[in-house]
């Protein structure tokens, strides 16, 4: 308990929390992208994968609650640190150049908070499947698919195609994913720094690898709405 | 050459301050920035006005007393150079130069461009030392230290404690300063003994003083007159994590 108190009690400790939870969320983002990219394999593999994830409600809720706790810790430490950081400079400079710092590093809270709003929309759109937010006039909960073994499961493939067929929604996704990658480009490198896992030998490699990883995620995530806009899966559209 | 100075003037912490603009007399481009302020102050004194208060001491870049945020950057336009070794030839004739004090809650303003950097002394008092008597300088090679460790410790020991890292950081964080001190001592055998206690105490003192946290923006490294590397902040994060896991003493 003492250790936890000390951990949360210091800015370095809160940065450890932010870094570890950030690492978990980064891994989730990678896994989620790889899962989503199965849309390019067709309806059957994607729906079978989605059914696998949803087939055990206990495990599913366990994973969801874990993610929720991780997000709360990540945002909580970010907000706590930002408030302290703002308080540390009560009188602002008239002229400030913030030499040597990147735009991404200075706007982590902003990119993170907008990203948070995007995640809420994303959950309402595809997880809660609230008809009001998908702008297509359809109820995604009605989409059913029969797998090769005869199991009836939600048609995630059709949901994705119909969802991204709306230009405004696809555009909003593009913005959200771009912000995510902007956030990760700095965040992944900073995560190594906060945990003390950087040195002069490979510190610059870590920083560059962070932007490469962010770029790969950006391409991976963006490829889906772009492909749908270009005609992927148009046979399932009405 | 002549420049127009826009300088922050403030009688003391409890009076509101503001910018005053001064046209300088003819200046020699090879004057240092501080010598230019001396010339301006001489003129102000002759006119019966209060001279601009600013900190300075050795004027050769090794004491860490000079400060100033010049056109938005602590210690002026160059990399790895303190204000005292910034020369007017770095500016153009007729330039307007904005001069502000270091701004941080932990560095309260005393007068004009002078701020109190006592918070750094409190951090050093908390753990920036070796408690045991180490005697006089040991014979060379009596205490073997690997060359890379010695080099790295010396890189960190270059910190002159000027506070530019705090001034430049968007969070007014003192992490680079604390990191330099903690790393310098933790890398050498005399300092290693107390490394956990030191990391913990210095971080506590840093936070008690009201400095912000590190957002890894890299501004501190970019303005440090001694070019202390961000790598040392990673080392401080390691040292502090180690201290937390080992528990108090």
Give a short synopsis of this structure:
Chain A is mainly alpha-helical. Chain A is built from ten helices and two strands; from the N terminus they run αααααααββααα.
Description:
The complex is a heterodimer of chains A (238) and B (249). By secondary structure, chain A is mostly helical. Chain A has one domain (2-236): Up-down Bundle (3 helical TM bundles of succinate and fumarate reductases), CATH 1.20.1300. Helices cover 71% and strands 3% of the residues of chain A. Chain A contains 10 helices and 2 strands. A two-stranded antiparallel ribbon of chain A has the order 1-2. In chain A, a hairpin with a 5-residue loop joins strand 1 (144-146) and strand 2 (152-154). In chain A, helix 1 packs across helix 2 and helix 2 (11-36) packs across helix 4 (57-87). Chain A starts with a helix and ends in a 9-residue tail after the last helix. Chain B has helices at residues 33-46, 118-127, 147-157, 164-168, 175-186, 189-192, 195-208, 219-223, 231-246, and strands at residues 4-9, 18-23, 69-70, 73-74, 96-100, 109-111, 114-115. Chain B has a 5-stranded mixed beta sheet with strand order 2-1-5-3-4. In chain B, strands 6-7 form a two-stranded antiparallel sheet. Chain B folds into 2 domains: 4-110, Ubiquitin-like (UB roll) (Roll); 117-246, Fumarate Reductase Iron-sulfur Protein, Chain B, domain 2. The mean pLDDT of chain B is 95. The radius of gyration of chain B is 20 Å and the shape is elongated. Chain B has 249 residues and is α+β, with helices and mostly antiparallel strands. In chain B, 37% of the residues lie in helices and 10% in strands. At the A-B interface, helix 1, helix 2, helix 4 and helix 9 of A face helix 7, helix 8 and helix 9 of B.
